[in-house]
Amino acid sequence: MAKNVAWIITLLAASSCPCFGQYLEIDQPANDIAFNAQTGMIYAAVPSSAGLPYGNDLIEISPVDGSITRSVFVGSEPFTIGMSPDAPVAYVGLSGAPWIYPVDLTTMTVGTGFSLGNTTYNGPRFAAQIAVMPGSPDTVAVSRRNHGYSPNYAGVAIYDDGVARTNADNSFTGGNTIAFGSQTSTLYGYTNETSDFTLRRYAIDPSGVSIATSAGSVISGYNVKIITRGDTILATSGAAVDGTQLALIGTYSIPGSGFANAVTVDDATSSVFFAAGDVVYAFDRRTFVPTGTLTIPANGGAVAATNCGTACVAVAYDSAQIFIASVPNLPIIFRNGFE
């Protein structure tokens, strides 16, 4: 059964602002959320502070009615979710232990976990972000971090069935946020905790990962996160970057500070969504033109966003709230990427 769920019909007053339609509020803390296309469900990493019944669980949420349909215990302080784009598999990185656990989303069962090991001087490594390799759900790229150090970057590595490939990026700073490109041999990473703001293209081969090329200040900003569609990199700063050239394509003009806390894409409507404060902004992905806004009663900052099917976006906030928004007024045009 869903916990503290309410549907709210939203009619935006400004006639110049397209209406997203309606949204669903779920009063549930989450450190991260992700959508799996194979199951059609949203998944949330729930911290221990949530208490019973879902603390330290990965929970499954229906995007249709907000009900929590299943849950499974994954370990101490689930922090980040790596979702396979083409298999019912998720990986959960913990913050309370330096481990990652795979989850079979068909059976909602936890598989054999693996440790990220220790650095020479800074102790155990924890998962900052996990990217599952397209077409290879047993292989993940992991951006690793330390606790209590600055910068906290602890390298990017590739793991097959939990076994690390030999070569890793162990630079002092590197890809705090990562995403695969159009080929499984390409991974992008952005340095978001030091002022060099370096964007890297990593090369992946059977021996592991190496830096192919890098560029500074193509994307700028602390704590900026990236996602990809093919070799187009989209950042929470509003930047859209050609990953093959590491060159700026254009910028989505996010009102206010110009930065969002989370970004996601709806391929069916060719839309990009940015969660900034209590507002979700929509843009046409090709033209950078704003197409709508939605103000929601969030009491904190967004921690993660995910597409949740056609004309659907979900956002988790650090105020123990998850919102699932329906966006039926955006046109479904069935196109991918920039044309």
Strand-helix topology:
Elements: E1 5-9, E2 22-26, E3 32-36, E4 41-45, E5 57-61, E6 68-73, E7 78-83, E8 89-94, E9 99-104, E10 109-110, E11 114-115, E12 126-132, E13 139-145, E14 153-160, E15 163-164, E16 177-180, E17 186-190, E18 198-205, E19 208-216, E20 226-229, E21 232-235, E22 239-242, E23 247-251, E24 262-266, E25 271-276, E26 279-284, E27 290-295, E28 302-307, E29 312-317, E30 321-326
Antiparallel strand pairs: 1-2, 2-30, 3-4, 4-5, 5-6, 7-8, 8-9, 9-10, 9-11, 12-13, 13-14, 14-15, 16-17, 17-18, 18-19, 20-21, 21-22, 22-23, 24-25, 25-26, 26-27, 28-29, 29-30
Q: Can you characterise this structure?
A:
With 339 residues, the chain is mostly beta strands. It has a domain at 1-30 and 260-339. It contains no helices and 30 strands. The protein has strands at residues 5-9, 22-26, 32-36, 41-45, 57-61, 68-73, 78-83, 89-94, 99-104, 109-110, 114-115, 126-132, 139-145, 153-160, 163-164, 177-180, 186-190, 198-205, 208-216, 226-229, 232-235, 239-242, 247-251, 262-266, 271-276, 279-284, 290-295, 302-307, 312-317, 321-326. The strands form seven sheets. It has a five-stranded antiparallel β-sheet with strand order 1-2-30-29-28, with no helix packed on it. Strand 20 and strand 21 (232-235) form a beta hairpin. The chain is globular. It starts with a strand and ends in a 13-residue tail after the last strand.
